[in-house]
Amino acid sequence: MKKTILLATALAVSAATAATAIAAPLDSKGIPADADGIIHVDLELCAKTAIGAAIKQFSEKTLVEKNTGREDYERFKKQTGIDPEKDISGVTIGLFKPDGGTRMPSAIAVVRGTFSPDKIIAAAKENKCAVTTRGALTLIDATTLAAASRGAVGDDSENDEPAAPAKTQTAFAGIVDKNTILVAETAAIVEKAAATLSGDAGSYAPPAVLDTFGKQEGAPMLLACFTRGLANDAASSMPILKAENILVALSEKGSSLRARIYSEYATPEAARKTRAAVQMLIGVLQMGAASSDSAEAAEQMQNLQRLIDSLKINLHDKSLDITADYPVAALIEQMKKYNAGE
């Protein structure tokens, strides 16, 4: 479910850059037991990183200079009383493999922080959103509001041909209490998540290896786990990459941003084949980057080579452990160029 993932990610990025963010370690409560994956962002750690500070700076510059979404953002804060940079302490997303594997996974976002339910409900009603009460849960149908938001963004495509009519996509928010809001595409998923918080249903139990993995990384800004159903669906075009579990961590280590991907396979042979596929892909990328003699391509090649030089690919029986480090200063410099439209 693209919209829920984007919404939750936007909230996470906004809060991640706030100096007043509150610690929010991984908590799977609110994620139903049948989820196929989980993504968690530790906002306190993000707020303290150099990359987090850079994102905040560029975001503020974009709002001021380009006025991109500034009016809507300020209206949102005023109406709901939610300042993402101050009030959101954590975002955890649960993912569900779609039936038939023909679309993106559906998702539930558990947004934790400090909120004013009365103000949020008043804002919803002011914007003509249906509000209903289901026990302790206040359910808001934000479909019309989401559609208006998408329309306000517009289409910046350079293609002159008219775009195909967009499929109506629903959006629901559930207020559990002053510290927890649920966001999903359907009311059923929101209610299902609320049941885990009330104790009427079980919560997602991450694989034991995720706890070990997280501790090994110290304090990752982002921690994610994709179990077999979701991992295999994502790798359907390359069967040899199908894994039992895929764990991902993102952290700032000294002056570098580190990404680590740890995959577990059914057999040692599957792990070996995956390593070979990764090594082959690296070779193809190097050949492609080296085939162009433009200045831009040369810079891209330099950046790619810097990343490749940092790669560590370790095979351990049925598992494959890949880490990559990239200088934060270099990444920020690239962000500056992108922000300037270079």
Amino-to-carboxy terminus distance: 32 Å
How many domains?
2
Poorly predicted segments: 1-23, 150-166
Give the spatial strand order of the biggest sheet. Answer: 4-5-6-7-3-2-1-8-9-10-12-11
For the biggest sheet, the summary is: 12 strands, antiparallel
Residues in β-strands, percent: 15-25%
Shape: globular
Strand/helix succession? HEHHHHEEHEEHEEHHEHEEHHEEH
Give Rg in angstroms: 21 Å
Proportion of helical residues:
40-55%
What integer is the average pLDDT?
79
Tally the beta strands: 12
The structure class reads alpha+beta
The total count of helices amounts to 13
Question: What does this entry look like structurally?
Answer:
The structure is a single chain. This protein is of the alpha+beta class and 342 residues long. It folds into two domains: 2-150 and 168-198, no CATH class; 208-339, no CATH class. 44% of the residues lie in helices and 24% in strands. It is built from 13 helices and twelve strands. It has a twelve-stranded antiparallel β-sheet, with helices on both faces. Helix 3 packs parallel to helix 13.
